[in-house]
Specification:
The structure holds two protein chains of two kinds.
Chain A lengths: L1 E6 L2 E6 L6 H9 L17 E4 L2 E4 L12 E3 L1 H4 L3 H13 L8 H14 L5 H8 L9 H19 L6
Parallel strand pairs in A: 1-5
Antiparallel strand pairs in A: 1-2, 3-4, 3-5
Chain B lengths: L4 E3 L4 H10 L4 E3 L3 H5 L11 E4 L9 E3 L3 E5 L4 H8 L5 H9 L3 H6 L2 H5 L8 H7 L3 E6 L2 E6 L17 E8 L5 E7 L10 E9 L4 E9 L3 E2 L2 H7 L8 H15 L7 H16 L1
Parallel strand pairs in B: 1-3, 2-3
Antiparallel strand pairs in B: 4-5, 5-8, 6-7, 6-8, 9-10, 10-11, 11-12
Helix pairs in contact in B: 3-4, 9-10
The chains are: A alpha+beta, B alpha+beta.
The complex binds flavin-adenine dinucleotide and FE2/S2 (inorganic) cluster (2 copies).
Chain lengths: 162, 275
């Protein structure tokens, strides 16, 4: 079947079988490199996409379910100020994710700050819980989230250079 | 890999027409239970599948003074937002404990209640709250309690060729609510279950007591609930322990879950109820 999906702002007509997962269709047909599916069961976050504005694990979606939807992958937001702020905050906090989970962590933080511009520790931990990683210490990640939230609100309210 | 025929009905009527033509049709709402339980690259689906999540009638919310009525395709994120400040706090917490935010953005309330091989976390809690469900099939529409989805032996028994359209959650609440989900937020398995116990604590009496434990099977005993109703709030020691034992003895005939875990939950629930 052909599934019409708007991917990163472009309409795509993707060939998919009924049992194909969205993550595989995006990787195989569009060579989207940020998707690194691992667990295939919604636990590692390495297949995150925004589906109609909501962060979801694309391994849990049969491709046909994305018919008519707007899908944004990491590539679609890579050049945004939000991602630049998060990357800078991760650097400052010394919480540098490995290439395997980097995009998953950034996508999770983008989503978190969208919903909670000033997230408390509980909300931050809950969000990070979606990306399996036993190697970065959560305290530095929480610190990075705080720094990114700060930078975001400074930019949003034009306080950047004050 | 079997290639399935996928349908995209836009109304309940179209879904019922598909179900009439093919009673084996597999309904996919969020798809998280169907897909999440399959470790293989390719997902196995039935021969005919209908994606129902875009049906507008199944996403509607109605709120009156008495109840909150939700379309079955309301996502768990949507339900959590609606529940905040409306539904009892423990229910809000149970929803927040299901899976993770990404999964809850896709998973639906209907999918949580209609699972065919076990009871998911919301079933026992909503059953305690006397939620009603609207079931639609070629035979028509009817409202029923959630116990309707439970067979005589306690196993799930979802009626064939049926669509759950709406869920009505009464807004009156219990002033004693004790809920524990065992097994964390992982995909439910044979060792996960949810324990829910609710009651109204009057000035000196316990009323409307209910206790449901559900996992691969469900456990609820009406005569035991009646035995608790009307007891003094401040009962202590032996009287309380005899009720705990009454429950744990009955549970000892159940082989689907660790009896010690059930016993310790029942003990904690009764201790809190009587404290
Ligand atoms: C990582 C992970 C963790 C999870 N953790 C939890 C957890 O902690 N607690 C928990 O309770 N669940 C958990 N789940 C299971 C599942 O995601 C949820 O129970 C979810 O609510 C199912 O909803 P869905 O819309 O995705 O269902 P689907 O997968 O679409 O459907 C589930 C079943 O219900 C049927 N169905 C769906 N909607 C209808 C309808 N309207 N009428 C008739 N039949 C219908 C389907 O045919 C199917 O048999 C988890 C899943 C994953 C992947
Ligand atoms: S591959 Fe999708 S969450 Fe792990
Ligand atoms: S830093 Fe990448 S998995 Fe831990």
């Amino acid at each position: 079947m052909i599934v019409d999906i708007n991917v990163n702002g472009e309409m795509r007509h993707l060939q998919a079988r009924s049992g194909d997962r969205l993550v595989d269709v995006l990787r195989d047909r569009l060579s989207i490199a940020s998707l690194l599916p691992d667990c295939l069961s919604g636990r590692c976050g390495r297949c995150f996409v925004f589906l109609d504005g909501r962060l979801v694990q694309s391994c849990l979606l049969p491709a046909f379910k994305a018919k008519g939807a707007r899908v944004v992958t990491f590539e679609g937001i890579a050049d945004s100020p939000e991602v630049a702020e998060i990357e800078e905050a991760l650097r400052q906090a010394g919480a540098l994710p490995c290439p395997f989970c980097r995009t998953a962590k950034i996508m999770a933080i983008v989503d978190l700050l969208e919903r909670h511009p000033l997230p408390d520790e509980k909300a931050a931990m809950e969000q990070l819980d979606m990306v399996s990683c036993a190697c970065t210490d959560p305290i530095s990640l929480i610190k990075a989230i705080g720094l990114a939230a700060d930078a975001r609100s400074k930019r949003k309210f034009n306080r950047a250079n004050k | 890999m079997r290639i399935s025929e996928v349908y995209f009905p836009e109304t309940i009527a179209e879904t019922l027409e598909l179900l009439r033509a093919n009673p084996e049709l597999q309904l996919v709402a969020g798809g998280t239970e169907i897909v999440g339980s399959q470790p293989t690259r390719s997902i196995a689906l039935e021969r005919q599948v209908a994606s129902i999540v875009k049906i507008k009638e199944l996403r509607k919310t109605v709120r009156t003074e008495q109840f909150l009525e939700l379309g079955s395709c309301t996502t768990l994120t949507g339900l959590r937002t609606l529940a905040s400040g409306t539904l009892p706090e423990p229910l809000y917490d149970v929803i927040g404990g299901i899976a993770n935010h990404g999964v809850r953005n896709i998973a639906t309330l209907g999918g949580n209640l209609c699972c065919k091989n076990r009871f998911m976390d919301l079933w026992p809690v909503l059953a305690c709250l006397d939620a009603q469900i609207e079931l639609r099939s070629a035979a028509g529409a009817r409202w029923a309690g959630l116990s309707h989805l439970c067979g005589e032996d306690g196993s799930p028994s979802f009626p064939p060729a049926t669509l759950m359209a709406r869920i009505r959650i009464p807004l009156f609440s219990y002033n004693f609510i004790f809920v524990r989900s065992l097994g964390g937020n992982a995909l439910p398995g044979p060792h996960t279950a949810t324990f829910a116990c609710m009651a109204n604590l009057g000035r000196d009496k316990i009323e409307d007591f209910r206790l449901i434990f559900a996992g691969t099977k469900a456990f609820r005993l009406k005569e035991h609930e009646m035995a608790v109703d009307g007891r003094r709030r401040g009962m202590k020691g032996r009287e309380m322990q005899s009720l705990v034992d009454y429950y744990t003895d009955a549970f000892s005939s159940q082989s689907w879950y660790d009896q010690r875990l059930f016993a310790s939950l029942a003990q904690e629930a009764f201790e809190r109820l009587c404290s």
